[in-house]
């Protein structure tokens, strides 16, 4: 039985979810993957804060303690912002550790650089959790792209915005009331700017663009419009006409190889693949040259949807390492 050591950066909602899954599924992962996964260190701001079910000896506020771990196999990153997240993962790759992230802000900007460096050091980068939470869009696209070309992507990439628009239509309430409900339920932050402005969806779309087309558009050229100007009257009129407002992020590539992207509210009818996506769900519709259109739907955020796909990323890495190619 191979023993592997892992580290978790951050112990908020997602970091705690990763810890819980690795603890609860340790025996199952031993049986299915043939490895004993040990959480060796958790990077936190406050090491004196008690965390239920967590041995205090696992906690550290020094990233150097993570890098000093012998036989460190993977680093799960679940913190916020570009830095120090990028610097941490860059250093972990240099140490020879795989890295798995849920940080779309950082990965939209530095994802391609991290992947290039990982190839150099013979490790892997997992980023399924950066985009659409529990929807396996990254793995699906990676599989499709082995044979198909992805030509056009449309997605509902922010569950908070989708919840607000859904509540306005189904409950007949204003944008402000729906936003307050989202905050009360924990779907929206106290400062909801990134969600309702479209910036969160923009970062996720840039990650999908890089994966599908190998490049991103110039960020400054992308039109990003939020949902705060949509009124209840507009939503009700659309509903009366058999249409619904969806906040859609889309990107495509033309015959000259130029990338076109935009994010904003759109009116869709029942024939549209994103028409039926309600509540906090995310969805991604892919147009491909051979398969045609594929639509993936699922929960866009939360402790376990996000944490589980990060652990699944690691399980995939371990499975690839165990494959023996016959000579």
Automatic annotation (TrEMBL):
Which residues are in the Aspartate/homoserine dehydrogenase NAD-binding domain?
Answer: 10-127
Q: What reaction does this enzyme carry out catalytically?
A: L-homoserine + NADP(+) = L-aspartate 4-semialdehyde + NADPH + H(+)
As for family, the record states:
Belongs to the homoserine dehydrogenase family.
Which protein are we looking at? Homoserine dehydrogenase
Q: In this protein, which residues make up the domain named Homoserine dehydrogenase catalytic?
A: 136-313
Which keywords annotate this record?
A: Amino-acid biosynthesis, Methionine biosynthesis, NADP, Oxidoreductase, Threonine biosynthesis
Q: Supply one GO molecular-function term.
A: homoserine dehydrogenase activity
Q: What is the scientific name of the source organism?
A: Kurthia gibsonii
């Amino acid at each position: 039985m191979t023993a592997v050591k892992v580290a978790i950066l951050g112990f908020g909602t997602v970091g705690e979810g990763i810890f819980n899954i690795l603890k609860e599924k340790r025996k199952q992962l031993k049986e299915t993957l043939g490895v004993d996964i040990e959480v060796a260190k958790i990077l936190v701001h406050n090491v004196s804060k008690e965390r239920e079910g967590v041995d205090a000896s696992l906690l550290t506020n020094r990233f150097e303690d993570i890098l000093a771990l012998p036989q460190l196999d993977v680093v799960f990153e679940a913190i916020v912002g570009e830095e120090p997240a990028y610097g941490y993962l860059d250093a972990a790759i240099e140490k020879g550790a795989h890295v798995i992230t849920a940080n779309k802000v950082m990965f939209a900007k530095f994802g391609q650089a991290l992947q290039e460096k990982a190839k150099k050091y013979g490790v892997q980068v997992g980023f399924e959790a950066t985009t659409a939470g529990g929807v396996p869009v990254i793995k699906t696209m990676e599989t499709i792209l082995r044979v198909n070309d992805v030509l056009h992507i449309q997605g509902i990439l922010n569950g908070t915005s989708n919840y607000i628009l859904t509540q306005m239509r189904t409950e007949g309430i204003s944008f402000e009331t729906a936003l307050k409900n989202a905050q009360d339920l924990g779907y929206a932050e106290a400062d909801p700017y990134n969600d309702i402005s479209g910036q969160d969806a923009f970062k996720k779309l840039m990650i999908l663009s890089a994966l599908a087309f190998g490049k991103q558009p110039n960020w400054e050229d992308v039109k990003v419009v939020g949902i705060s100007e949509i009124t209840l009257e507009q939503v009700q009129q659309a509903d009366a006409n058999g249409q619904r407002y969806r906040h859609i992020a889309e990107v495509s590539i033309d015959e000259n190889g130029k990338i076109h992207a935009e994010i904003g509210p759109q009116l869709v009818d029942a024939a549209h693949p994103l028409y039926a996506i309600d509540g906090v769900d995310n969805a991604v519709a892919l147009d491909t040259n051979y398969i045609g259109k594929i639509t993936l739907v699922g929960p866009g955020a939360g402790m376990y949807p996000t944490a589980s796909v990060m652990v699944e990323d690691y399980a995939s890495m371990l499975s690839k390492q165990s494959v023996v190619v016959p000579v």
